[in-house]
Amino acid sequence: MSVTAETAPQSDAAARKRRKLWLGVGFVGCIAGSIAFAGPFLSPVLRKHCLPYLPATENTIKLLFSELKGARGPLIDLGSGDGRVVIAAAKQGFIAHGIELNIWLVLYSRLRSLLAGTSSRTKFYRADLWKTDLSPYNSIIVFGGESMMSDLSVKLKKETVANTDIISCRFPLDSNVWDTCSMIEDGHNPLWRYKQSSDKCR
Q1: Taking each helix axis from N to C terminus, what angle separates 3-42 and 103-116, rounded to the nearest 10 degrees?
Q2: Per-residue pLDDT reduced to its tens digit, 113-153
């Protein structure tokens, strides 16, 4: 038997091993990539208070800014998602910030704002709302979850300054802490407006 005939099976076996190795590496890479991408979407679920990513409708955004008509000064969206509310605020003349735990949504929001021509009036941060100081803001928007509203009501009462406007979407703030200025029905997305330390809502 020739040397070539003897080494051919060995070469085929080595090639099969290399293919299996690369398939294994590719599979592990896909799993790791999926975890890296999905992690920011899943991690909030593991927290005490989960702020769901449910994009605001165009009608909700329209109603929201009708409630903030005449308001000025810096605005913040707590849990800014894909940035649509912050970008809309910038178009209304606000200096607008958004905080969001999901880094992919933060990066997407920055790109979206750049393409919309509002990047000079917006900032997006990866941040935890419970660790964010809200005192610099004159207008605060939150699309919250029911379980978080009581704790959030206390935080807002402690940190906001006089005449701060607060719009809470989908769920109201705690009525034992805040008096409602107005409420708008919008299907499954009602809005409540509050004002800090003021006898008059407008």
Answers
A1: 80
A2: 999 999 999 999 999 999 999 999 999 999 988 999 999 99
